[in-house]
Amino acid sequence: MSAQFAPPQSSLDKLDAALRRLVERHAFSRLADPDAFDGLALDGLAVLLLTDDPQRSPESLDVAVVLPEALRALGLVATALVADAGASPALARRFGVNRYPAVVVLQGGEYLGTLAGILDWGAFVSELGRIARALPSRPPISIATQSVRSCA
Question: Which of 78, 84, 118, 90 lies closest to 102, judged by CA?
Fold first, then answer.
């Protein structure tokens, strides 16, 4: 009898599994194409998680776990969206995001702010709550000299 081992999961396989959990367990809508974002009717509060290959941005996996719990802790009812690593760069440019992962918060489709990276639990929840209460503003202009990637 010979033992057969499955090949190790790639970082993108791990990200795919995390995004599937967001969809299946927490009712996130998954965006594989950045153009799909424009077709959404975002009437109330919305959060958009922008991700990257965990090989470059390991925090993408952490935020995929923490974000639904933070929304629940704050009692926020929001349209929850997550962009694949392939769709995230175009959306990141649109919202001035320079670091992955990033949670873009919108109200009625208007930009409220971005929470980039992972923070300690209390700080993450506090910052997400602060952004959700902010007034709409213009997204920052991204002045990245390279492709947008995590600093981690």
Answer: 118
Tokens 């390991």, residue located? 58
User: What pTM did the predictor assign?
Assistant: 0.87
Report the alpha-carbon angle 69-75-78, nearest 5: 80
- Per-position DSSP letters for 91-121, written without gaps between them: HHHHTT--SSSEEEEEETTEEEEEEES---H
Q: One-letter amino acid identity for 134?
A: A
CA 17 to chain centre: 14
Structure tokens of 123? Answer: 């700080």
| Cα–Cα nearest to 14, from 54, 41, 73, 50 | 54
Question: CA-CA-CA-CA torsion for 46, 50, 54, 56, nearest 10 degrees?
Answer: -150
Query: Widest CA span of the chain, in angstroms?
Result: 65
Q: Pairing state of beta strands 110-116 and 45-50?
A: unpaired
Span 14-53, pLDDT tens digits: 999 999 999 999 999 999 999 999 889 899 999 999 999 9
